[in-house]
Amino acid sequence: MRRVKDARHLDALFPVWRYHPFVTNSALPVDQADITHRRHAIIETTFADLIDGPLAHIPSGLFAANCAWLACAVIAHNLLRAVGTLAGGHHAVARGLPCAAT
Q1: Can you tell me whether residue 4 is helix, strand or coil?
Q2: 20 near 43, Cβ under 8 Å?
Q3: What pLDDT score was predicted for residue 35?
Q4: Is 19 helix (H, G, I), strand (E, B) or coil?
Q5: Which of 6, 45, 62, 84 is deepest in the core (most CB within 10 A)?
Q6: Are the beta carbons of 16 and 6 closer than 8 angstroms?
Q7: Of 48, 45, 46, 28, which Cα lies nearest the Cα of 36?
Q8: H-helix or E-strand containing 3?
Q9: What domain of life does the UniProt record list for this protein's source (predicted)?
Q10: Low-confidence ranges of the chain (pLDDT < 70)
């Protein structure tokens, strides 16, 4: 069970907590299992960002074209993350727009 302060009620007289139960088959303690779960969620968001964006064009049928799309996707993703981190705030977790279907 994990509890976090509810962001909607930060100025409340008494703190408002939200509880998030989770079930796992891991032998890790609860706090470490929660950290592992959060890391997995970050990776899933990264994959979704790449698959919805430049990796939507793979496979193209040409190995060299696939390599070029992958290289461009990695560069664009890393630049987006670096600039978002420098900008701070909600930009740090911003996602790129999906590529238009052609």
Answers
A1: strand
A2: no
A3: 85
A4: strand
A5: 84
A6: yes
A7: 28
A8: strand 2-5
A9: Bacteria
A10: 1-18, 98-102
Amino acid type, 41: A
CB-based contacts of 97, cutoff 8 Å, min separation 6: 53
Is residue 19 within 8 A of residue 3, CB to CB? The reply is: yes
29: tokens are 């303690």
- Both tokens assigned to 32: 């470490």
Structure tokens at 77: 């993703």
The number of beta carbons lying within 10 Å of the beta carbon of residue 73 is: 20
H helix intervals, 53-89 = 63-87
Name residue 18's amino acid.
R
Whether 97 contacts 80, CB under 8 Å: no
pLDDT at 64: 92
**Tokens representing 57?**
């064009």
Task: Compute, in degrees rounded to 10, the torsion defined by CA atoms 78, 84, 85, 89.
Answer: -160
For residue 101, give the nearest of 48, 56, 59 by alpha carbon: 56
